Amino acid sequence: MTCVDYVIRGGRVIDPKNEIDIIGDVAIHQGLIHSVGEGLKVTGKEEFNAEGCLVTPGLIDGHVHCYQYATPLGINPDERCLSRGVTTVVDAGSAGSSTFLGLRKFIAERSETRVLCFLHIAAHGLAAAGCASGAPGGESDCLNQLDVTSCHDVVEQNRDMIVGVKARLSESITNNGKNEQEVYRRAMEVGQLCKVPIMAHHTLSTIPTQGRTGDDCLCCPRDMAPGDIYTHTYHAFPSTIIDPETGNILDDVIEARKKGVLFELGHGQGSFSWTVAELCARRSFWPDIIGTDLHSGNLDGPVYDLPRVMTKLLHLGMPLYDVISAVTVNTAKAIGRDDLGSLSSGREADVTVITLEEIERDLEDSQSQTRRVRQWITPVAVWKKGKRHEITQPKEIPNIAAMKSNAKDWPALVIKDAKPPSVLQDK
């Protein structure tokens, strides 16, 4: 009988890339996936009993900020991602062309977590920037910082790590909106030149979500190209994808999806609304990619980590198989990394084991509106390139202190619950 390094036995193995959904085993040897199947005839130097668990490809978080110490939003990917079952993260624009090498040398090359990134169209990225809904002032106030040539060159020189271009489209960080159209245009230009997707953050923006007949301005997501990624899909601020008057998804959003624009969750500190999510869920408008937008301002709530964000989608009614797809194969395909997101034999052995528990617990959205969830995803084991890593768990869910702080933005929402969050009512 063949001897391998690890055998993960008896779990429900879900690998959407290979259309696998079985009770079976996963064998790992020399850092690679050896085999997957029912009752594998192999022995492991070490074995993990996964009975009652789900075994998936290593989770991919398609939206984080992990340029720690060089940006206000940066977090440690090993401490906050790998230890929660996430083997690959995609940093969403923390670095621009002038600051990218620091992200590579001091974060990606020193982390156990695989770190990829979208390069910010602004040369300095998010070096001095926080959330886009704060006080005026941001990375795109000066168009001199948005150099197409330097952005293009850095993408081309770092194809192994850079998977696309990031643009943040918000009035407060683009010289009071005067630069927004040009930020968008230049990001799309680099995307077209390099044949990579752009990721567009579009909240509190002067750029219309729904275009009008005869308009001569760019709209978002209408003018995005197939394969481009629209993030913060379920936010409830002005620029939301929902028509506040009807509660329907805007026509341009539906048409953008039809032509191939991808929608990424991008939960973040301000960009996930239970109210918007439920309106979208009624129409089965699910995110193609489930990313957390995990950063220093939300890692202790309302985001916590990717498994907790997956839990929210499951509560909304997104099928489990689709939830797993949106954190594995879908993300890998969107960023042009088909070598990731599967349990195919011969691929690097990135494997996550999670449990799906029956439980009743409140989970908050970005403005502290809560829902009582009854299924809970918890990571219990993770292997990255065949090496097992320790799992940690959040200390407090929900985090009431964080909820009280985040609820302050509730009045600014254009789509929201009929009653304010309980932490506001308790005052």
TrEMBL record:
It comes from the Eukaryota. It holds the Pfam family Amidohydro_1. Residues 289-372 form the Amidohydrolase-related domain. GO terms for molecular function: deacetylase activity; hydrolase activity, acting on carbon-nitrogen (but not peptide) bonds. SUPFAM superfamilies: Composite domain of metallo-dependent hydrolases (SSF51338), Metallo-dependent hydrolases (SSF51556). This is Dihydroorotase.
